[in-house]
Write a structure and sequence with these properties.
Layout: E1 2-8, E2 13-19, E3 25-29, H1 35-45, E4 48-53, H2 59-62, H3 65-72, E5 76-77, H4 84-88, H5 90-97, E6 116-119, E7 122-128, E8 137-141, E9 146-150, E10 153-154, E11 157-158, H6 168-179, E12 187-190, E13 196-197, H7 198-204, H8 210-214
């Protein structure tokens, strides 16, 4: 597996191009905006995009997803159906944050916990990780030990839970019960900011370090 992070929107959201080095077929995870930057990255890598994937439906992650999927004539997949509330609110989200108007939509397919999405010869395992939003999902490539976690976990922080339909307890459970079992060596690409590993966060993250949760 290879990937390239393309920070997009004023929120510097980590849109990720993920592709199979054997087939050069790939996916775009969370194209929130700045389509010309995403398309330039796709062209520079010479990737054949097979699908667009969403971790959740906040506008900085989902804002340009339907436009990109339609332009490339590929399916738009995810997130979990519990995030349709946020997809329906995309026009209001755009207005609230002063971003380009984005129409509400339904994905071509929702995702469920335990599913797997193929990208070329890659297999991305789907984990339903509610808390930041009710329908948030994470994509995990077991072969490379890499996870694309959206806004569940960050280097030194965790996702916000002060939004409608957010739940702090659910978020902590998603991190400790869904992410930690993937292994300390797992490197993760968050929705914002630098990469880290689950082991590093278990040791030092002030919100979810083992010592903090045990205390």
């Amino acid at each position: 597996m290879k990937y390239q992070i393309v920070p997009v929107t004023p929120f510097q959201q980590n849109c990720s191009l993920v592709w199979c080095s054997q087939t050069n077929k790939g996916a775009v995870i969370d194209p929130g905006g700045d389509l010309e930057m995403i398309e330039a990255a796709i062209a520079s890598q010479g990737i054949e995009i097979e699908k667009v994937l969403l971790t959740h439906a906040h506008i900085d992650h989902a804002g340009a997803s339907r436009m990109l999927a339609d332009k490339l004539q590929v399916p738009l997949v995810g997130p979990h159906k519990a995030d349709q509330f946020w997809l329906d609110q995309l026009p209001q989200q755009a207005q609230m944050f002063g971003l380009a108007l984005t129409q509400a939509f339904q994905p071509d397919r929702y995702l469920e916990d335990g599913q797997a999405e193929t990208v070329g010869n890659l297999t991305l395992n789907v984990l339903h990780t509610p808390g930041h939003t009710p329908g948030h999902v994470v994509f995990h490539d077991a072969d490379s030990g890499t996870a694309f976690v959206g806004d569940v976990l960050f280097s030194g922080s965790i996702g916000r839970t002060d939004f409608p339909m957010s739940n702090h307890g659910d978020l902590i459970a998603s991190i400790t019960q869904k992410l930690w079992p993937l292994g300390d060596a797992t490197e993760f690409v968050p929705g914002h900011g630098p990469n880290s590993t689950f082991g590093a966060e278990r040791r030092s993250n002030p919100f979810v370090a083992d010592a903090v949760l045990a205390g």
